[in-house]
């Protein structure tokens, strides 16, 4: 029995995760075959997340399209699944776009929001007639050149920013300023305009952070822009509200609160550390007074996924909901969820390589993985991992830090001190839950020439089996042709 007073952060785990972590021979076999760590991906959860969005849109009766923001996970299987389940993909690079075409996605189901669009990328989208979301004048000039050279036209949307919220202009480095977009489109996309080969299609924004109020304001102001454009003959067929839809990782709001209180208290010299060297996860200690908030994802939140979207759609604009405003104008709403479509879609499992004490007596558990294989912009990944010991050892609870394979003092896989019900042994496994969104791939690197983690799609027929991400699509084609 653990006597630890460390605050717990219990993750939500879907049955497939419980199944796989409950049958140790499965992860043992896969780690033996593919090395440590492995990323396991479940496409069934991906489909369920999409259905939740689809249902809320249908409930409001608004025309909609969902595009999976692939930057959140690099696996091609999710692109395949987006096609199979009937939604699209939001792309951030030429290679991402090419893979969509390879998988057979309809070009209309691809959106291109890449932050840098060079000649190769724009030539490819023109060749394949993939609608593109434009961000700045130089991009427009380059696209226009390519359209001129190829004597083609292309459907375009425009990213806009600078929305007003609570009397202030929201900052963004992306997009055209909302105050200038109407004149830009009216002047340049008219029949005699400089960009007359652009076929105006719609408007796009993506906001930093997770505010439904800001998104509702931005959507309302974008509808106003659409109305003014209409007067000059430019019909807006879609408004894309980007991503940033919250998802919830944790089972308990109390645990979340308790953790934050304990983190604040840990700053006092008489209190023990609950994070490595009393790391404040982004807060600043000014002479004993804590300033700011932890710079972490809101891992517990009640307003997530379809509820988050419902809140925006139901927001009032002049006595009518935003959803109804879209309906009366026949404007399709588009969404580019990354993280929230990947909720419960992936886990990362690694093997214990060593145990040791650091020079201050902390128990460190070295895993066969590195920090970039489970890393996001959040100051820490605040979910308790699932510890999978090979054998039971009675009465040996302990508190540990998990460290990785890069040669840095700060190579901690989690900054939080974690309590385990027994002392880990070499060869035991540790499972990090819900890592598909950003954690697996966004910062992944190959320093020290370590192999990248293998990405394995798990499926259950009689028993659980895995297929390498790259081979997954192929295995489906073979299966469909009846070769099994
Ligand atoms: C343009 C755009 N769309 C969608 C997303 C996906 O955001 P999220 O994963 O938070 O849903 C991002 C994330 O950076 C983005 O930049």
Walk me through the structure.
The protein has helices at residues 15-22, 25-34, 43-60, 76-85, 94-103, 119-128, 137-150, 181-188, 212-231, 253-265, 305-313, 322-329, 469-480, and strands at 38-41, 64-69, 88-91, 110-112, 132-134, 154-161, 164-165, 168-169, 176-177, 198-204, 238-240, 284-286, 289-291, 316-317, 320-321, 332-335, 346-357, 363-367, 386-388, 398-403, 418-420, 429-433, 454-460, 464-468. The radius of gyration is 24 Å and the shape is globular. Strands 1, 17, 18, 19, 20, 21, 22, 23 and 24 form a nine-stranded mixed beta sheet that branches. Strands 2, 3, 4, 5, 6, 9, 10, 11 and 16 form a nine-stranded parallel beta sheet that branches. The chain has a two-stranded antiparallel sheet with strand order 7-8. The two termini are 48 Å apart. It has 13 helices and 24 strands. Strand 7 and strand 8 (168-169) form a beta hairpin. The protein folds into three domains: 15-42 and 344-480, Lyase, Ornithine Decarboxylase, Chain A, domain 1, CATH 2.40.37.10; 43-246 and 300-342, Alpha-Beta Barrel (TIM Barrel), CATH 3.20.20.10; 253-291, no CATH class. The chain is α/β, with parallel strands linked by helices and 484 residues long. The protein binds pyridoxal-5'-phosphate (PLP). Residues 69, 72, 90, 113, 206, 242-245, 336-340 line the site of pyridoxal-5'-phosphate.
